[in-house]
Design brief:
single chain; 326 residues; alpha/beta; 15 helices; 10 strands; 44% helix; SsuA/THI5; metal-binding
Length: 326
């Protein structure tokens, strides 16, 4: 009998989850004795923006409390997970799919230089609901809190807002959105200027798409968790070995689930394949070592840094934030 696993994504099915998608569609999870359900964030875009974005750890923890016979997992940005822990949500990081945060700001065509936040003085930045606190803290730490306007935007129409200069920068992944923007007529075939936020926010490269689990589930479902992480790493290895086929699998998964990008920019095998190629250097560590991509020392330093500049509301001790003995 297959062991059930639910996995809460913080975005749509796309290249950033290629390892999960390939592991599921290629049968790697089933071979490991697992029945894995990938749950997209945007089954209802408007509702998710109001109640789900940035609350994925709460959702997963609550789901496990309601039914602890199933291993409930999820993934979020590092700052989102640590802030949830600071609020008392009993979850821990167990691995990261992307080593070195790819979180960034993308500039509109009207911006001709973007080397620091100061280049956005007097401008408006559009951010997702789960990153408002992060961007606000970064502007405050740069003494720009009264100089830069921060607005929460719907992920689904952020491309249009940037293209028509309603906002002059938006939150983005520097391995995904630049390629999508270049296909829009407003960008005339060029990629937008990008400002990487990883080291600024975390004090070191940090992590993206951090896999987390409820504290109790880590021990109650240890064998299942180990099997899931191993199969997921194999999924990433397979995806990186044949990125074109992985791009095809991503698009097939999107079609089957009804996933679509309102801008239309992600609905292309070419885009998904190229995004995966760009992500390759960030995934290699995880695949090659077959152990957690998270360095405990770096993770602890990031927690201290985020607390010191107000990205998270309090310092979360390493042992309460990262599972150290997997």
């Amino acid at each position: 009998m297959l062991r059930r696993v639910t996995f809460q994504l913080d975005y749509l099915l796309s290249a950033q989850f290629a390892g999960l998608i390939v592991a599921k569609r290629s049968g790697l999870y089933k071979q490991a004795g697992l029945d894995v359900e990938l749950i997209e964030a945007w089954t209802n875009v408007d509702r998710w923006a109001k109640t789900g974005a940035g609350r994925e750890p709460d959702i997963v923890a609550r789901k496990y409390e309601n039914d602890d016979s199933i291993l409930c997992l999820g993934c979020v940005e590092q700052n989102v997970l640590v802030e949830s822990q600071a609020r008392g949500v009993k979850v821990k990081a167990v691995d990261a799919m992307i080593k070195g945060s790819v979180l960034a700001l993308a500039a509109s065509p009207s911006i001709t230089s973007l080397t620091s936040l100061r280049d956005l003085k007097g401008r408006t930045i559009g951010v997702h609901a789960d990153s408002v606190d992060l961007i606000t803290a970064l502007t405050k730490n740069s003494n720009l809190e009264n100089e830069i306007n921060i607005v929460e935007i719907d992920c689904a129409n952020k491309y249009k807002l940037l293209a028509d200069d309603t906002v002059q920068a938006i939150q983005a992944y520097d391995v995904m959105e630049p390629l999508e923007f270049s296909q829009m007529k407003e960008f005339k075939g060029r990629e937008p200027l990008m400002l990487s936020l990883g080291k600024i926010a975390y004090g070191n490269p940090g992590y993206s798409q951090v896999i987390f689990a409820p504290n109790d589930a880590i021990f109650s479902h240890k064998d299942t968790l180990d099997s899931f992480l191993e199969a997921t790493r194999e999924g990433w290895a397979e995806a990186l070995k044949d990125v074109e086929h992985a791009g095809f699998q991503i698009m097939e998964a999107r079609k089957e689930s009804g996933t679509y990008s309102k801008s239309g920019q992600q609905d292309s095998q070419q885009v998904q394949t190229r995004c995966l190629e760009l992500m390759g250097p960030h995934i290699g560590h995880n695949v090659i070592t077959k152990v957690s991509a998270i360095d405990p020392k770096e993770w602890g330093q990031s927690n201290e840094h985020m607390a010191s500049i107000g990205i998270v509301s309090r310092m979360v001790p390493l042992e309460a934030s990262l599972q150290l003995d997997l």
